[in-house]
Amino acid sequence: MKGSARWALVFAQAQLDGQLEDAGMHAREARGVILHSGGLDSSVLLSLLRARTAEAVSLTVLYGQRHEREAQYASTLCLMLGIKHEQINASVLAECMGGSSQTDLAISVPHGFYADASMAQTVVPNRNMTLLSMAIAYCISQGMDYVAYAAHSGDHPIYPDCRPSFIGAMRNAAAFCHTKPIAVLTPFSDVTKADVVSIGTESGVPFSQTYSCYEGGLKHCGECGTCVERILAFHEAGIADPTEYKISNPLANALRLFYSAQGVTLEQEKGGDQ
Ligand SMILES: [Zn+2]
Q1: Separation of 229 CA from ligand 1 center, angstroms?
Q2: Lowest-confidence range among 49-53, 147-151, 260-264?
Q3: In this predicted model, what pLDDT tens digit does every residue of 152-186 receive, in sequence order?
Q4: Are 182 and 175 in contact (CB under 8 A)?
Q5: Contact call for residues 151 and 188 (beta carbons, < 8 A)
Q6: Which residue among 116, 182, 193, 274 has its CA within the 20 to 30 Å range from the CA of 150?
């Protein structure tokens, strides 16, 4: 979905309301928990749900990921916005989530465009199902109504657990795993990351208090898949990117990788010498 920032927000709100209504709930009365990594998408989602529902709690799970800088950003953002933040230390999970650059330090973080084949090594095995199960358990224990996570349409090519088929299966399981149904909310599943940036802008999310980089440095590296995706999302949304990157001219680098992934050189794209 493309269009104005305002329409992106209205669309996400409508998706959210519809998903709650499908579960027999009303947004203004619903209370729940958001899987909040501290990245851009989940921070915007948290802001949306805080504004739209009766109560939105941030839940950050430490699953033995490569670094905890993102989680620190999650904590700081919640402090700034006055949102309840829960952090669960489940780092033992990394023992059964190996084979990914995000849980195994022996595997280097690939640089390149988000949809490159090399990005498959950033996939953490069954992460969303595991984390959603934990969030659902927390939700039930608190007498809450919903869990939410920030899958968006750009995730579909490389992350199976962000696709509609997975979301539908998880939604069905959450409706029957307890005596009371729990709603699984994914209001961004039909919008792009650029739209998420637009929604965050409309919602007043302080983007400088979100962190995306797979490498975990003080500054974003600007070259890993998620940095490149972040850079391009701000560019496509037409929003100034406040992120500090280690490399100079990160946008030119990201655009070069984007075109290269599609077999197009910048020279061809510009119609230059061939
Ligand atoms: Zn990076």
Answers
A1: 10
A2: 260-264
A3: 998 777 888 999 999 999 999 999 999 999 999 99
A4: yes
A5: yes
A6: 116
What distance in angstroms lies between residue 209's CA and the mean position of ligand 1's atoms? Answer: 16
Instruction: Using the mean position of ligand 1's atoms as its centre, give its distance from the Cα of residue 226 in Å.
Output: 6
Q: What is the pLDDT of residues 73-112, one digit of tens each?
A: 999 999 999 999 999 999 999 999 888 888 888 888 888 7
What does 103-139 look like in DSSP terms, one character per residue?
Answer: T-TTSPPPBS-TTSGGGGGGPPTTHHHHHHHHHHHHH
Segment 16-32, tens digit of pLDDT = 999 999 999 999 999 99
Helix (H) or strand (E) holding 86: strand 85-89
Beta-bridge partner residues of 162: none
Separation of 110 CA from ligand 1 center, angstroms?
Answer: 9
Distance 63 CA to ligand 1 centre (A): 19
**pLDDT for res 149:** 98
What one-letter code names the amino acid at 98? G
Residues in Cβ contact with 231 at an 8 Å cutoff, skipping those fewer than 6 apart: 222, 241, 243, 245, 250, 251, 254
Residue 271 lies in a domain: no
**228 domain residue, yes or no:** no
Q: Is residue 44 part of a domain?
A: yes
In terms of residue numbers, what domain contains 76? 5-106+125-205
pLDDT in tens, 112-136: 776 667 778 888 899 999 999 999 9
User: How many domains does the chain divide into?
Assistant: 1
How confident is the model at residue 1, as a pLDDT? 44
Q: Is residue 36 part of a domain?
A: yes
Q: Are 193 and 229 in contact (CB under 8 A)?
A: yes
- Ligand 1 centroid–CA 146 distance in Å is 31
- CATH number of the domain at 59, please: 3.40.50.620
The two structure tokens encoding residue 32:
């729940």
